[in-house]
Design brief:
single chain; alpha/beta; six-stranded mixed sheet; three-stranded antiparallel sheet; globular; binds inosinic acid; binds magnesium ion
Length: 187
């Protein structure tokens, strides 16, 4: 990564800021084409998706609207608990609307599966998923992700909205943490 200082807790950069921005431009182009004559509502899943949502929205050249949900599926650990808690619900009705769920990352898929069932019950006109990162192969349940960004290996990553214990969300790239940053003894 030329000219970009890597955070001292990061062992390796998995995807650079440039790679991420290129991918978002492509996703935005597809979404712009697919929803050209439709009234699109982006639903971002907080907190992780806030960085991605901001960049994605600016690469979609349509008059979109925004809503957010906040869910919690992880404590401060790095493993999926499978328990999804809704901390903040939608502000708007989605009945009859074209909804695109914007997620940062799909790991087990439990969070997104739960949200799909939850939103589907409100009878949107359409409901699709856009997730920037996808640990394909880790899903406990099959998932149809219409707008996937990157397939990544099943490692815990941080940056670009993704956290470990609420830290590292503001890194412009995604990377793998050094074991010492998890509180492991350095040897
Ligand atoms: P899932 O329910 O196992 O698919 O997990 C989805 C959620 O877990 C994401 O929205 C993230 O908040 C979090 N998550 C999953 N993998 C990672 C990771 O590698 N780094 C940071 N957060 C992750
Ligand atoms: Mg998240």
């Amino acid at each position: 990564m030329n000219g970009v200082e890597i955070h001292e807790d990061i062992e390796a950069v998995l995807l650079s800021s440039e790679q991420i921005q290129d991918k978002i431009a492509t996703l935005g182009k597809h979404i712009t084409e697919d929803y050209r004559d439709k009234d699109l509502l982006l639903v971002g899943i907080l907190k992780g998706a806030f960085v991605f949502m901001a960049d994605l929205a600016r690469s979609i050249h349509l008059p979109i609207e925004f809503d957010f949900m906040a869910v919690s599926s992880y404590g401060s650990s790095t493993r999926s608990s499978g328990v999804v808690r809704i901390l903040k619900d939608l502000d708007y009705e989605i009945t009859g609307r074209h909804v695109l769920l914007v997620e940062d990352i799909i790991d087990s898929g439990l969070t997104v599966s739960y949200l799909l069932r939850y939103l589907e019950a409100r009878r949107p006109e359409s409901l699709e998923i856009c997730s920037l990162f996808w640990k394909r192969g880790e899903q406990a349940v099959p998932l149809d992700v219409k707008y996937p960004g990157f397939d990544i290996p099943p490692v815990f990553v941080v940056g670009y909205g993704l956290d470990y214990s609420e830290k590292y969300r503001n890194l412009p790239y995604i990377g793998v943490l050094k074991p010492v940053a998890y509180g492991a003894e350095s040897t």
